[in-house]
Amino acid sequence: MKRFSILSRFALPVLALSILSIGPAMIEADNGPNHRVRNLHFGVSGGNVNDTSRRFCCSGTLGALVTDNQGVRYVLSNNHVVGLSGSASAGQDISQPGLIDNGCQVHTVVADFTAAPPLNSNVDAAIAQLRPGLMDGTGFIEDIGTISSAVRVPSVGLAVQKSGRTTGHTTGSISSINTTVSVRYSKSCGSNNGPVFTFTNQVVINSSSFSAGGDSGSLIVSNDNCKQPVALLFAGSSSSTIGNPISLVLTRLSASIGRTVTFVGGTCTAGPTLEGLSFGNQGLSDETIARASAIKERRENDLFSRPGVIGVGVGTDDDNPFDAVIIVYVDMTSGFSPRLPRRIDGVRVKTVYTDTFVAY
Predict the structure, then answer these.
(1) Residues 6+ apart with CB under 8 A from 114
(2) Is a pLDDT exceeding 70 seen at residue 225?
(3) What CA–CA distance (Å, rounded) separates 129 from 160?
């Protein structure tokens, strides 16, 4: 869920308190306030100026700068942040900061909505054509800097970082890959209930401080000197963050506009790229990951059929970093306590209790 504020009944200035009814509480991080004001960098507040309802206005994060093979530049974010979850029209204004951080009023229009793959295409991504001179042309991300244009394959244990509207700059590590998740979306700005979409092959970071509502649209990059794009943050819970693998995001966006989309940045590559032979999972061999992933895929439908299960992925055994486990995410707010096997075909099952995964 995006961060949202309540509109005054009499069109007076918005209440100073911004409210989030589902998901993690507001967390201040280093330089957090810099992400919620006018800022030419990326990783800051922004959204579609039409993302309002009768009582609320919503915003997320303008994550990064991308370009197509004709040299046109775009702001990268989520479909549910700038594309109104599939209902936006081409050319709609994208502001920075977002409505929530300017009393539900439009501040500076920096881009025009261009395209968003549908939410059932396994990504929550969108681009908006950048207006000249209104955002940093190097793609500089607040508190992170200029990134690499070379994307990195997600791997278990990879140290990552992100910069977002709500929690600012945070760090963490990837807990599971090849993860299938069920994510709830809002019907409109400020609503609590809506459709549930299933995403496969997602990246999950288990942390209570890595992100919160309003960080949707942030680019997750490797936490090293190269800062390679890894995933696009779009959902989570009070204890987990979920991201689309960035290579799939670029593929879907390229198909949407009929031109190849890439990141604006340098050429540094510190780890496995799409062309690499190794996935680089720390402590885990490719064979170990492949075996656990194959077993997980065979039994995934069975695991999801158990009430309360909202995610199934592959991660590292807490007791043996050289052994993979199947991680099952259970919604502890569902009222169900599913009976899960301790092992499946010799691979240990690890249960992670969380609350509902929501697009925020």
Answers:
(1) 74, 90, 126, 127, 128, 129, 257
(2) yes
(3) 27
